[in-house]
Amino acid sequence: MTLDQNRLRIALQKSGRLSTDCQQLLKGCGVKLNLREQRLIAHAENMPIDLLRVRDDDIPGLVMDGVVDLGIVGENVLEETVMERQATGQSAEYSVLKRLDFGGCRLSLAVAEEFDYQGPKSLEGKRIATSYPWLLKRYMDSQGVKFKSVMLNGSVEVAPRAGLADAICDLVSTGATLEANGLVETDVIYRSKAVLIQSANPLAASKQKVIDKLLPRIQGLQQARESKYIMLHAPQDKLEEVIALMPGAERPTIMQLAGETKQVAIHVVSTEDLFWETMEGLKALGASSILVLPIEKMME
Ligand SMILES: Nc1ncnc2c1ncn2[C@@H]1O[C@H](COP(=O)(O)OP(=O)(O)OP(=O)(O)O)[C@@H](O)[C@H]1O
Ligand SMILES: O=P(O)(O)OC[C@H]1O[C@H](OP(=O)(O)OP(=O)(O)O)[C@H](O)[C@@H]1O
Ligand SMILES: [Mg+2]
């Protein structure tokens, strides 16, 4: 199976932290995929889209070299690639189409629990293990600290205990991996999310049409994930107080309840979640039958 030049080509991580979210995103956009484990190129069944399933490290380069039209990758990998390519005289052009709401993590320095850390200066002349030598160098340069970079492509957290390095610079999300390896996070040097990027090459009108369909759908999915549909019954004479308690809500719909004059039904789309505390507050005002529902898709 080869890549068809007339179809929009998108590079995604084959397997790893971003792959499930990427597949869910495309599915949510109505792209029908037939992904078999071993297939590295997949054709969408109902839209002119081809997917290239690769290592995440290769995605920025594939976009910048124009091999694919779009790619989804972590900003950490993107920024690292830009710095590396600029330093080695390769083109590093692309545009960000959309910052996505998954793949959130930070690139941090960490040292062993017993290390007497007094700020970045404590790392002067020390060995730091990382998969992100350019991002690390930029930070250490900004701090005026010289260090030795030890390149590791994975399992970076093992380096201090293995005697390979004095500190590490790696991705952190919950911090569980650091804790499990007796490490303490000291400096956050970069915050990242997944982004949808586009090649700087001119795009055929037919491919642009597909992008123009996908972008509002992605926006609609993200907005829906951040929103809730709230329904409740409330006393007619406490309406304004009840409405004031609801978070980030538009003006609600008020409906009559059959055979009931003192209570009304309120329906509202809220741009935030409704926390237990707020629900308790609503209940204290006399509200009942409070339902909070997820929203699948939205279009304004
Ligand atoms: N713990 C985490 N929580 C959330 N997002 C993360 C986490 N770790 C990494 N990421 C994001 O997901 C991206 C991919 O992470 P992953 O660990 O799957 O990469 P990898 O092991 O380099 O995969 P590959 O085999 O594709 O090279 C990272 O570059 C980062 O943007
Ligand atoms: O702070 P935490 O929630 O523990 O997450 C951080 C870990 O997640 C990533 O690795 P991943 O588990 O994706 O494995 P990898 O080393 O194979 O990429 C990252 O490289 C850290 O090791
Ligand atoms: Mg990788």
What does this 3D model show about the protein?
This protein has 300 residues and is of the alpha/beta class. It has 8 helices and 15 strands. It has helices at 19-28, 59-64, 75-87, 133-143, 176-180, 205-226, 239-245, 276-284, and strands at 8-13, 41-43, 49-54, 70-74, 94-99, 105-112, 127-130, 148-151, 167-172, 183-192, 194-199, 228-235, 253-257, 260-270, 288-294. Strand 2 (41-43) and strand 3 form a beta hairpin. The two termini are 39 Å apart. The mean pLDDT is 95. Bound molecules: adenosine-5'-triphosphate, 1-O-pyrophosphono-5-O-phosphono-alpha-D-ribofuranose and magnesium ion. Magnesium ion binds next to loops.
Summary, kept brief:
The protein is α/β, with parallel strands linked by helices. It contains eight helices and 15 strands. 28% of the residues lie in helices and 32% in strands.
Quaternary state reads single chain
Count, helices:
8
How confident overall, as mean pLDDT?
Answer: 95
CATH class of the largest domain: Alpha Beta
Task: Give helix and strand order, one letter per element, not per position.
Answer: EHEEHEHEEEHEEHEEHEHEEHE
Tally of discrete structural domains: 3
Portion in beta strands: 25-35%
Q: Do you know the CATH topology of the largest domain?
A: D-Maltodextrin-Binding Protein, domain 2
> What is the number of E strands?
15
Bound molecules: adenosine-5'-triphosphate, 1-O-pyrophosphono-5-O-phosphono-alpha-D-ribofuranose, magnesium ion
Query: What is the CA-atom radius of gyration, in angstroms?
Result: 25 Å
Largest sheet: 6 strands, mixed
Stretches where pLDDT falls below 50 for ≥5 residues?
none
